[in-house]
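Possible regression after last week's pipeline update?

I re-ran a chain I had predicted before the update to compare outputs. Posting the input and the new output here so someone can diff against the archived version. Not blocking, just want to make sure nothing changed silently.
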Amino acid sequence: MEKLIVIGGGPAGIMAALTAAGQGCQVELWERNKQLGRKLSITGKGRCNITNDTADLAELVKNIPGNGSFLYGALSRFTPQDVMDFFTGAGLPLKTERGRRVFPASDRARDVVDTLCDQLEQAGVQLHYGRRAKRLAIHDGRVQGVYDFSGALHPASAVVIATGGVTYPATGSTGDGYALAEQAGHSIEHPRASLVPLETEESWPAQLSGLSLRNVELSLWSGEKLLRQDFGEMLFTHFGVSGPLVLSVSQTVCSPENQGLPLRLSIDLKPALNREQLDARLQRDFAALSRKIYQNSLSQLLPASLIPVFVALSGIPGEKPVNQLSRQDRQSILELLKGLPLKIKGPRPLAEGIVTAGGVCVKEVNPKTMASRLVEGLFFAGEVLDVDGYTGGYNLQAAWSTGYVAGISVAWGL
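New output (post-update):
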């Protein structure tokens, strides 16, 4: 029986191993850590957003702006529904939340990892923990096996590189796959953080560290040009901002075309109300609170910890009686509610990114099979490829799909 070595025990590597083993291949799965799925177990704040429940292929690709078109074939062959069927068939109940985000019903990412481990055992995949690939054995343009760091050669008829990127290095994502790919002659697009918290020029977010804003609209601007806009939840931190909304817009912030540009954020604190409706709300509130001072009149509009910052940014004295607020004052308050401004200093360090943009150049990989166009018997899957998407389950879907396609392609080719 021909043997496949899969390097990397994350979602893409596990799916590649399971798929090939299910087709009768002898499969070894190498994982440098002492356990599988370390990064997977902390995704989605420990809940694991395994996919996005959309049947619209174009919508999927749209939400993977980093070379999403490369994934058309993979996403159509192993869809979000296929992912959900796989897990429910393996005995893991799922649930779908806002934005079509799919989670395990238990809200435990560890249950996802445990399910995958059970499936690997049932499929007869040979797991090797603490084993790293030092270099590929390549002869006459074909993979012959893999050398580990002891210098031992492990023969194989095919190899899948699914080592992930370089974000969250503590989980084992340290860029090993890039060196292996380069040894095989592949080009590496410069790795950079994608889906990463953002530092701000302003220091006031530190005063609000830990405050989460829900149901707000976040806009990213370059001058007067709107680059991205999204609705949901965000978080203030000691360095700036984070949370799902910020991670989504960070993909655009970190894209090569926006590097070096002065970028700013605008937070609509009341997106459900247009300006006319919000102005009417302010007039009603201020009429009812006419005997209070300005800084004590905002509790129905804002979280308590945000009020002192908001008052300072409005430029209106906090002690000013509400019945003395002018129309101009009210307009200043309204504009700030509809567009709390922040200047972006830059993304947090690469190690803090959730997803790596950059990686193995997709032009050198066959999108129908995930096979190298340069070396026969070599395949790629997951985050090691130059592919990245927004939050919402899209990156994990890309991992499952490319892993499946790599695994099935190996099986059919051996």
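Follow-up from reviewer: compared with the archived run. The longest strand covers residues 225-236. Marking as no regression found.
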